[in-house]
Amino acid sequence: MNRSARFVAWLVGLAVLGYFVVGHLFATLPVGLDWSAWPLGEIGREVFGAVGIQIHGAVMGGLWLLVILVAVMYFAARSANRAQKAHGVSAGRRRVVAALSAIGATALAGGAGALRGFFGVGESHDGWNGSGRGIGVDAQKTHPEYPDAWKGARVQGYRRLGRTGWVISDIVVGSGRVGRVAGETKGTEIVRRAIDRGVTYVDTSPDYSSTGSEAVVADAIEGVRDKVFIATKFCTPWGHLDAGSSVADYKKVIEDSLRRLRTDYADLAHVHACDTVERIMDPNLHEAADRLREEGKLRFIGFSTHTPNLVEVVKAAIDSGRFDVMMLAYHHGIWPQLGDLIKRARSEQDMGVVAMKTLKGAKHDGLAGFRNEASSYSQAALRWVLSNADVSAAIISFFEYQHVDEYLRASGGSLNPMTREDLAILEGYDEQIAGTHCAPHCGACLSSCPEGVPINDVLRHRMYFEDYRDEKEAMRLYSKLEVNASACASCSAPCTAACPLGIQIGERTAGAHEMLTLT
After folding, report:
1. How far is Cα 334 from Cα 439, in angstroms, rounded to an integer?
2. 202 - beta bridge partners?
């Protein structure tokens, strides 16, 4: 091969490397994936942790990008130097040519990567440059109108949280969507405003905004800690502890959470997003909980679930008698048997019941259709939940100032009952989501999938992206699935016939894969 051909081959190789490798990194880095999503990511996290640095997993992606670009510079400079030396070029001139070659090679690889990652060249999307259609959208996450009649709303109803003996507000704060932002106090102000308006229960977790939620809650409860019931989770900032984790690990995550919350004790710790009986009944979990109670660091233990295995998990928890509180998905139109499970939990074990996912997937882009209603969709949905006297409270994420007024307007239970207008709003919402929203997460379709795709999780992550507009979290969660929906585009979708709601599962999951990946 002559000199010109080698040069062209070198350029083509750099462009290919840049497009496929650097481009993948450019496309993936902004998503903010967990450490586990990157090669050697877990080792990287341990190394940073060993020197006392707790940092986001995307750093690992940045390090890989740096390694690749430095390697490109090194090999380009080395090749140029050797070629010049073979032709008797002086050392000074070789250094200049080597430096220019390194810069040029890096620019070519980086440019090819940018075309793919930032501009979507060769892809079915417009890259991050075109993210205005997705991540950059200023979607409606609240009712489009903000009537004066809502302003100043306060908690109007309080209910007993089962055998804990606590009487808590019927609307409680979920802090999963608030986090610490440098120079901003919005999240803290929202949570504190809700507390000042009568909310007495705040839910947080280490994996909400990578401990950012805990920082917000810590500031919000300062000076009023004894008036607020604090619920946290058996989690690390990067995810949930699995069955078989050590007693020491279960204790450590709660003790770390207390330190970040700046409190001596947690009122409640949940086994979070529990999908198996093994997790909820892990002997090490219960031994750790007992020790934490003895040490005065934890008062009560609970669990949360919204998975296809919800019924089995809830039944096991009730039968065990070990749990004081359960937090489960409960909203209008969900499985009829959930009402019976809630009644069992209250009558047999006097468990407190906190209803989550109360907005049924809150298809925020469609809420403009309720613009002229006196009540918002969220208020109607919350009143439906509270119409069940066995529910201790409805939890919902507060992340805008308006939410304090809008959501607390639904408080009151029998003092603020459902109206015909509320029912009409809920029926109208159901018409909007018909055939698209996986409301019950029943799992009826799972056994019919030949690829073992966790259909319920795929559709839930799509909901986070498409309806909640929480795109980064949706993509992060999707990337961690052991089996994704990549095979759905070419599948005959036998799962569709199994869906009791008539959802076109194949189309929805194939679309989810395209939506939730940038590769």
Report:
1. 6
2. 173, 230
Tell me which residue of 499, 81, 156, 160 sits closest to 350, measured CA to CA: 160
In sequence order, what E strands does 234-357 have? 235-236, 239-240, 266-271, 298-305, 325-329, 352-356
DSSP 237: T
Residue that the structure tokens 């940092």 belong to: 55
Token pair of 174 as six digits:
């979920």
Q: CA of 220: how far to CAs of 192, 215, 300, in Å?
A: 5, 9, 22
Residue 494, number of CB atoms within 10 A of its CB: 13
* Per-residue tokens: 83: 């070629």
Q: Which helix (H) or strand (E) holds 27?
A: helix 23-28
- For residue 242, the 8-state DSSP code is P
* 149 closest CA partner among 413, 381, 409: 409
What are the backbone angles phi and psi of residue 159, rounded to the nearest 5°?
Answer: -135, 155
Structure tokens at 167: 């009487």
Contacts of 67 (CB under 8 A, 6+ apart): none
**Closest among 197, 190, 161, 155 to 174, alpha carbons compared:** 190
Contact 206, 214 (CB under 8 A): yes
Is pLDDT above 90 for 500? no
* Structure-derived torsion over alpha carbons of residues 193, 197, 201, 203, reported in degrees to the nearest 10: -30
Segment (H or E) for 158: strand 158-160
Cα–Cα distance measured from residue 56 to residue 106, given in angstroms and rounded to the nearest whole number: 26
CA distances from 72 to 29, 326, 412 (A): 19, 54, 65
pLDDT digits (tens, 9 = 90+) for 43-62: 887 888 787 776 666 678 78
Find out whether 77 and 101 touch, Cβ atoms under 8 Å: yes
Q: How far apart are CA 217 and CA 187, in angstroms?
A: 8
Q: pLDDT-derived band of residue 143, with 50, 70 and 90 as boundaries?
A: low
Looking at residue 35, what is its pLDDT?
66
At 38, the amino acid letter reads W
Buried b or exposed e, range 290-324, using 16+ CB within 10 angstroms? eebeeeebbbbbbbbbbbbbbbebbebbbeeebbb
Element spanning 159, H or E: strand 158-160
Token couple for 147: 């009537």
Long-range contacts (CB closer than 8 Å, 24 or more residues apart) made by 217-222: 217/175, 217/191, 217/261, 218/260, 218/261, 218/262, 218/263, 219/185, 219/188, 219/192, 220/188, 220/191, 220/192, 220/195, 221/191, 221/195, 221/261, 221/263, 222/262
SS (H, E, C) 103-125: HHHHHHHHHHHHHHHCCCCCCCC
Can you say whether residue 321 is alpha, beta or left, with left for phi > 0 and alpha for psi between -120 and 50 degrees? left
Q: How far apart are CA 109 and CA 226, in angstroms?
A: 58
Distance CA 174, CA 409 (A): 16
Q: Is the CB of residue 268 less than 8 Å from the CB of residue 300?
A: yes
More confident residue, 45 or 484: 484
